[in-house]
Amino acid sequence: MIMEQQAFLCLFLFLVSFLSLKILLKANKSKGKKLLPCPWRLPIFGNLHLLNPNKLHHSLLSLSNKHGPLILLHLGSIPTIIISSHDVAEEIFTKHDITFSGRPLLTGPKKLFYNCSSVTFSTYGEHWRQARKIVMLELLSARRVRSFETIRVEEVEKFIAAIKDLSVANLSELTLSLANNIVCRVALGDKFADGGYGGKGGVWLHHLLKESQRFLGGFFVADFFPALKWVDRLIGFQGRIEKNFEQVDKFFDRVIWEHIKKEKEEDERSNNINGRGDKEDMVDILLRLHEVAVLHGGFLSSIDHVKAILWESFLAATDTSSATITWTMTQLMKNPRVMKKLQEELKQATNGDTHRLIQECELEKLPYLRQVIKESMRIKPPVPLLLPHETIQSCQIQGYDIPAKTRVIFNIMAISIDPNVWEKPLEFLPERFEGSKVDFKGQDFEFLPFGSGRRKCPGINFAMVIVELALANLLHCFDWSMPDGMKIEDINMDENIGLTTHKKEALCLVAKSKGSFHVHGTSPFSATSTFSIPNKPHNSHFSLSKKHGPLMLLHLGSFPTIIVFSRGIAEEIFTNHDLTFSSLPLLTGPKKLLYNCSNMAFSPYGDHWRQARRIIMLVLLSTRRSRSF
């Protein structure tokens, strides 16, 4: 007993001496430097006791209201700066962007994204530059995002049709299914898409996704007390995230194997006539780049990097899109004046035609819809705390000295409801954006839902078109009300905290259909009735063009088909986009009769077609040859 007491006393004296020495050394090191304001902190735990993990951004807002918009917290043993002011954010992103472009290696991202080899979570350097270049130029370029339009429209159509059949629509779940199905088809191809809305399809993948999101936004001891990382394994956290990672890894092994197998089968059938072009999903694109990198060296030479980028695309696009749609519908239900005004805009844009869906090309005609979405993201930013940054070298901000390796958190919610910037900041007033150039692209520092600078979210355009198209059709096709026995005041605005802020309680509403809407809003015919066209297709198409315009989209069965009835449009296509429109579909008749479309007229665009055309033009039908006949 005496020996145990002596051992405890020795340990206690050692800890006191160690902490005292550490504080003394830090004090000497800090002499002559202007330090940030910091609330009183506990030994070892620092300022962790001041934070409510269930309302973290609200806790940080309270601290900034008390101590200022630029404060230092000690979260465990990690010094962390909290930014809650647009002018501080502007100084950082315009003058010190590189310095603040680092990322801390946190436990969740490190495990789930193959040692942080994705774009969002990788540390600043050459690896990050190469990863971002691939994402911006190959996966999420403006052209690539446009090429996914058919998928978005088809999924929104299924989404609207599913709601039409429900007595009460759980929009929280339905919007998650919508975003998940779009991302799944875009990233992995049709085979891996859920295909259902509210059904049992894709439940396993949904569960895997939610589990990963919880780990990414969860608390790991190692992230605040690096010397105590063994505690995460002791209490089971490490084991659970490793199990989740194993499931993710096996899933992507299967996805990649299926794509390689499919590519080989297609190559054998088509005899390598041409590439897949815009029909490629993200896996196809990344595997193509992976093959090049393996041969010539490069960022994607590791298949783990391919998996990291794919999984990040899933988590980011699915979560933020569904959360934004749900919160916007919530705000509209609580503000019927705004909903009525928005529905009136939709009515005018479609000339009151409720027998069709809103098309993507019509979104530009809906400025008030944009204002509503901006206002929703201002009051309820999908990511209220930007992912942590880390300084890669020391600098000065607002006259304060900031050491290297300091963790940095931007409280976007605090910035977007700052009463010094926004009039009536807690009121839902979309009109505040009318005539305003304030946007979410990262240049207006009072409104940064997607961040700014080098670390700005690369998927803004991809996410926003999903949000706009879904919301436009939800409000165009339906009138909305509360379920029986509930009032608008009963809508719970509490948040479920993670990396992305969702509603704590699901948004369940009653949808009353306004009309019998059809595919894309371009044709009143159903998919089956289009088969009445073949007798006089040119006359039928001409009649449709008189009603819907010289450039329209029909769905002939499951195939989206553009019909052009204008000299001006034809001229634009053949002069500005001839290469884009040069391919031909592999139709059953030509494929069988012309030896797998290996002639010139019916072969898809590619090297085979070029060689066949060259033979025809130079050997068989040259001017000299024609004269010889």
Secondary structure: elements and pairs:
Elements: H1 2-29, H2 56-67, E1 70-75, E2 78-83, H3 86-95, H4 107-112, H5 126-139, H6 142-147, H7 149-164, E3 169-170, H8 171-188, H9 203-216, H10 230-234, H11 237-270, H12 282-296, H13 303-334, H14 336-349, H15 367-379, E4 389-390, E5 395-397, E6 400-402, E7 407-410, H16 412-416, H17 460-477, E8 478-481, E9 495-496, E10 502-503, E11 508-513, H18 537-548, E12 551-556, E13 559-564, H19 567-576, H20 588-593, H21 607-620, H22 623-628
Parallel strand pairs: 2-7
Antiparallel strand pairs: 1-2, 3-11, 4-7, 5-6, 8-11, 9-10, 12-13
Helix pairs in contact: 7-8, 7-17, 8-13, 9-11, 13-15, 13-17
Report on the structure:
Among the domains are: 126-513, Orthogonal Bundle (Cytochrome p450); 582-629, no CATH class. Mean pLDDT is 85; it is low at 1-8 and 519-536. 49% of the residues lie in helices and 8% in strands. It is globular and about 100 Å long. It has 22 helices and 13 strands. Strand 9 (495-496) and strand 10 (502-503) form a beta hairpin. The chain has helices at residues 2-29, 56-67, 86-95, 107-112, 126-139, 142-147, 149-164, 171-188, 203-216, 230-234, 237-270, 282-296, 303-334, 336-349, 367-379, 412-416, 460-477, 537-548, 567-576, 588-593, 607-620, 623-628; strands at 70-75, 78-83, 169-170, 389-390, 395-397, 400-402, 407-410, 478-481, 495-496, 502-503, 508-513, 551-556, 559-564. The strands form five sheets. A four-stranded mixed sheet has the order 1-2-7-4. The protein has 629 residues and is of the alpha+beta class.
